[in-house]
Amino acid sequence: MVLRLAGRRTELSLLAPVVLLVPLGVVVTHIAQTGLFETGPLAVAIAFAGLVLGAHFVLAWAGHLGDEMLLPAVAGLGAVGIVMLNRLPQDLAGNPAFDLGMVGTQLVWFGVGLAAMVLVAVGVRDDGFLRHYKYSWGLLGAALLVLTFLFGTEINDARLWIVIGPFSVQPSEAIKVMLVIFLAGYLAENRLVLAGASLRIGPLQLPPLPYLAPMLVVFAAVMLVVVVSRDLGTALLFFGVFLTMLFVSTGRRSYVLFGAILFVAGSAVAYLLFPHVAARIDTWLDPWADPNGAGYQTVQAIYAFARGGVFGEGLGQGLPVVNGNLPIPAVETDMIFAAIGEELGMLGAVAVLGLVAVVMTRGFRIAALAGDDFSTMLATGLVAGLVLQSLIIVGGNLKVVPLTGITLPFISYGGSSLLASFVVVGLLLSISHRSIPRPAAGDEDDR
Amino acid sequence: MATGSRSATRASSSESTDDGSAPVTNDILRLLLLALQLGFLGLLFIILLRFARALRADLRQAEALAASTQSGMGRLVVVESPGGEPAVGRALQIGAITTLGRDLNSTIYLEDEFASGDHAVLTFRGRAWYAEDRGSTNGTYVNGHRIQRPVALSYGDELMIGRVRFRLER
């Protein structure tokens, strides 16, 4: 048993420097905030290292053969997140059930997420329960969406939370995964039909209607509810994931073109129909029209990036408090990239994007090497979800795209987001484990 | 207080000392702070560099592996084989035209009395595999359905010939 811990060497060697990030970050923060060099805050670093290395050793002990760069990459993102959350005032967020402050609560969710990841990575030996029940998963996702819409609590003008006792859950994170499972099953089954276009509208080639229709109906329903519940970022994310999966499964550029046209047309209609959509887009185009009202968040984020410059103000030395408030609203969740830009500078922000790029590379590699179409589509959809979500919110922080309320995976504060993201990593690990050809008995002549 | 700490290092040159957070007064601590901060950024890029190296090594390994195996069109993994030939668990690389049957001249020879001599043929046309029954006695099954004409296969589909079951993988 001790010997088996020697597996996954690449993973361990990549995790070693990642684990060192947190102690360095919390010590810098502590010196900057109190002027003292003390070892007290290192508890956060020890907890983080214990959780991440624990997950690694369980995987190694279980003899898991899956990808070895995914966990270090998301742990790197998580480390930056923990350092930033440790730096912010601890009363910004937190769960009364834990009484651990913001970073403590986040660490608890980190542990829960990592446990779920290991459980999924090791436990899912056969994806039949995903593949065969694709319509059930799709329906479950849609039902959750409707439930949230009917019984959800409205926070910040968007109805996307369900409050259960001391916990508030964000179901859209789980719905994202369920939608990907449904689309993967449907596309894997009908890939060849969808790829061989027969319906023509002008220069566009579309798949035969009986195959396209169910997908579009389910998709339109999801989009409708998401748009009505005002969760614009999630709507954009779902649509992006859908188009990515459709393109990967069929290899037809015309579908992407068609989707882009649909998206532009849909956005224009939404701009005219929904005042909250119009407000978001107006704010994006000119935040300085109302710098103390609607444009406040965006303007403050731009100032934060400007203050940060190339090297950053330094951990614990940026984000000047004005009238007892931090400069950027929602800095612990949606706007955490602006805080990274201010305190770690362009270099820190680029490093974060680099880690996202590593996640993307590994995810698409897992998709390409998967043995069957369903696994390929599932991996593609899951990784597209993670990466697009990162890009949408980073773009929103930078005023490249309209700002929408979604989290930066593995970095932002929030249990639902962390748990869902780690389950996604677990599924990717499980797919890559299963795609490795295993030697069987009487197999000598087979390479 | 703020102006006092401005001159020393870039690290403490922010205006954060005005807003209530404690100032760093000790020069040595301030230097340590700057060094640790640059260390943090440096470590981030060391991590990225190590990822780049690991990715490159992985790519080389994949290239070597792709060169040593061939075609890349797909393989048949034996799921069930009561006769023992081919053995369960084997992954058979398949070429663009692959015949299956009890005839010894078949590309894939099946030791199964429920299989016909010239039982079925797999062909790779354009971008997909097709399975075709060659007039066998007991039929060819794809995902449990007996096929009447050539059908397109997806990766992950199950093919049954006689009592031998295969799964088509990439």
Structure, described:
- The complex is a heterodimer of chains A (447) and B (170).
- Chain A is built from 16 helices and five strands.
- The longest helix of chain A has 26 residues, at 9-34.
- In chain A, helix 3 (70-87) runs antiparallel to helix 14 (345-369) and helix 12 packs parallel to helix 13.
- The radius of gyration of chain A is 22 Å and the shape is globular.
- Chain A is mainly α and 447 residues long.
- Chain A has helices at residues 9-34, 42-61, 70-87, 101-123, 128-131, 134-151, 172-195, 209-228, 232-250, 253-273, 275-285, 296-308, 336-343, 345-369, 373-397, 415-434, and strands spanning 153-155, 158-164, 167-169, 199-201, 204-206.
- Chain B is α+β, with helices and mostly antiparallel strands and 170 residues long.
- Chain B has helices spanning 2-6, 27-68, and strands at residues 75-80, 91-93, 97-101, 108-109, 120-125, 128-133, 140-142, 145-146, 151-153, 158-161, 164-169.
- Chain B has a six-stranded antiparallel sheet, with no helix packed on it. Chain B has a five-stranded mixed sheet with strand order 4-3-5-6-9, with no helix packed on it.
- The longest helix of chain B is centred in the first third of the chain and has 42 residues, at 27-68.
- The chains are: A mainly alpha (447), B alpha+beta (170).
Keywords, separated by commas or semicolons:
heterodimer; A: 447 residues; mainly alpha; 3-stranded antiparallel β-sheet; two-stranded antiparallel sheet; 66% helix; disordered C terminus; B: 170 residues; alpha+beta; 6-stranded antiparallel β-sheet; 11 strands; 28% helix; rod-shaped
Briefly say what this structure is.
The complex is a heterodimer of chains A (447) and B (170). Chain A is mostly helical and 447 residues long.
How many distinct helices of chain B?
Answer: 2
* Rg result of chain A: 22 Å
How would a textbook summarize the main sheet of chain B?
6 strands, antiparallel
Mean pLDDT of chain B: 80
Number of strands of chain A: 5
How many helices of chain A in DSSP terms?
Answer: 16
Oligomeric state, counting identical vs distinct chains: heterodimer
Number of DSSP strand runs of chain B: 11
Order of helices and strands of chain A: HHHHHHEEEHEEHHHHHHHHH
